Amino acid sequence: MTDNNRPVLCAVIGRTRHKMMQIEIQEAAKRGAQLIELRLDFLAKAPDFKRLLAQRPCPMIASVRRPVDGGRFPGSEEERLMLLRQAVVAGFDWIDLETDVADQVRRYGNVKRIVSYHNMRQMPDDLEEIYERMCAQDADVVKIAVTAGQPSDNLRVLDLINKGRKPTVAHCMGDMGACSRVLSACYGSPFTYAAFNPERSFAPGMLSLDELRKTYHYEELDNKSKIFGVIGDPVGHSLSPLIHNQAFRKMNFNGVYLPFRVPRGELADFLKSFDSLGVRGYSVTIPHKESAARLATIRDPAVERIGAANTIIRMVDGWHAFNTDAQAAVESLKANLPVGPDGTPGQLQSRTVLLLGAGGVARALAHMLKENNVPLILANRTPERSQKLAEEVGCKVVDWAARHNVLCDTLVNCTSVGMHPNLDECPIHVSFLKPGLMIFDTVYTPETTMLIREAKERGCHVLTGVDMFVRQAGLQFKLFTGLEAPLELMEKLVRRALSPIAIKEEE
Ligand code: NAP
C-alpha cells in the first residue's frame, strides 16, 4: 500500500453531515491515517463528491454498506449500485464492492477495487472457499470481515492473509477478534481499518486510530515482531496491553502485546490452537490462573505453593509458569514500610498483618508473608476458604464478623471490595483505622479506594495497589524480554489511565 511496504492505517469516517466528514478527513490524516474509507451510507443527504474529495490529504475509499453488512444505506440495491458507480467516476482512489455485486460494477480508469465479504453473525464454515472465489474476481485487495465465535477463528483469517493469492485484509469482528486486527500487520496485510472517532463504532471490535497507533504501534509491526498477550475473560479493560506495548517501544523491543478473550475452561484448547502463532508469553488473569499453573511443565516455587500463575513463558519443553503478583506484593510492602521513629527502615517480619480475602491475590500474599516469617491473621467472607488457606500456610484465622477485633499494625485488603464500580464500599469499618496503622489496598481500580481515602484522613500509612500492579508488570516484562522494565513509564501510564477522567470516559 505504501512504497516501503509498511502496514497502513485506514481511518473509517462516517458522519451524517458533509461538513463533519470534511473536518474528520483532514483531522484523520493529521493523526496518521494514510488511507481513509468514507462510509457514504452514513450521509443524511445525497453525497456531494466534489466537496468530499476536495483537498484530499491521502487516498480515499468509497463504500456504501447495506444493513446486512453492518451499514445504514436505506435505499434500494439499484440505487446503491448507482451511487457506487458515481463514486468511481467522481474520482475516489478506491471503491469497495461486496463480493456478490463486484461483477456488476466495471473497473474504471485507475480506480482500485476492494472486493469484500462481511458476516456480522458468524464465521462461515466455508470461509476458505468464499475467499478462493473472491480471489478469482477483479480485485486489487480482497477484504474479509467475519464474526469470531471462538478464539481460533482469528487464526483462520490470519492464514488467509498469510497464504493469500491477492493482497488481503482479513479480520474477525467482536471483542474476541481484536487480536486479528492488530496481528494482520505481522502477516502482511496491506492495511487495517481504524475508527477515526472512538465514540462511533463502524464494526464490532474495531479499534480506534489512536489505539492502533499509540498503543499497538501498528505501522511498526512486521513478521519479526514477537507476540505476547493477556489471557482472561473479561479482558477488554486490562491495562496490560497499554503498558507492555509502550514499554516495548521505549526499550526498542520489536514486540506486540494483545488481549485474548478466552472463556472459562478453554485455556488448554486456546494454547494448543494458538501454538501456530508462536506467542512467546502470556499474562494470565481471571479465570485462568489456576489452569495455567496446572498446564505448565515447569512452575516457579511461588506457583508451586500458591497453585496459581499469572505469567506463562514458552520454552522448548513447554510452558513455564510464574507468579509475579506474589513477588510484587511483598516487594511493594517491603519498599513502602513506615520508617521507625529513629529513622531505621521498617522490617516486614516485625509487623503483624491482618489479611482480608482468600482469593487469588490473598493466596499469593499469604504464602509469601509466611515465607518471610510475618505473623499473619486471615479473615474472609466465606470462612471455608480462609480456613483452608490458613491451614496451608500455618497461620491464624478469624471469622469475617470478628475482623474488627484483631490487634495488628498492618491491614492488607485482598478482597475486591471497593473496586470499580462499587466505589462506596469499604472492607473494614472506618473506626478500625487508627493513626500509624499501615493500610495496603491491593485494589487499583480506582487507585484511591474508599479504604485508602478514609485511611489517609485518619492518619494511617497507606499503600495503594498501583505500586504492586506496576511491579508485577515489570517482572513480567523482564520474563518476556529479558530486559529491565521501564518502571517509571509504566507507572505514569497506569496513573494516567486510572485518573478519574479516564475512568469516566470509559463508562
Ligand atoms: P478473587 O480470587 O475473585 O477473590 C476475591 C476475594 O474478594 C474473595 O476473598 C472474596 O470473598 C472477596 N469478596 C468479594 N466480594 C466481597 C464482599 N462483598 N465482601 C467481602 N468479601 C468479598 O480475586 P483476586 O484475583 O484475589 O483479586 C482480588 C482483588 O485484588 C481484585 O479486586 C483486584 O483489584 C486486586 N488485584 C490487584 C492486583 C495488583 O497488582 N495490585 C493484581 C490482581 C488483583 P469470598 O471468598 O467470600 O468470595
Q: How would you characterize the overall build of this protein?
A:
With 507 residues, this protein is α/β, with parallel strands linked by helices. Among the domains are: 8-222, TIM Barrel (Alpha-Beta Barrel), CATH 3.20.20; 335-469, Rossmann fold, CATH 3.40.50. Helix content is 35%, strand content 19%. It contains 18 helices and 20 strands. The protein has helices spanning 18-30, 49-53, 77-90, 127-135, 153-163, 178-183, 209-215, 240-250, 267-273, 289-295, 301-306, 324-335, 360-371, 383-393, 450-457, 465-481, 487-498, 500-506, and strands at residues 8-13, 35-39, 60-63, 94-98, 112-119, 141-147, 168-173, 191-195, 226-232, 255-261, 281-284, 298-299, 311-315, 318-322, 353-356, 376-379, 396-397, 410-413, 438-441, 461-463. It has an eight-stranded parallel beta sheet with strand order 7-6-5-4-3-2-1-8. A six-stranded mixed beta sheet has the order 10-9-11-13-14-12, with helices on both faces. The longest helix is centred in the last third of the chain and has 17 residues, at 465-481. NADP nicotinamide-adenine-dinucleotide phosphate is lined by residues 286, 325, 357-362, 380-382, 385, 414-417, 419, 442-444, 465, 468-469, 472.
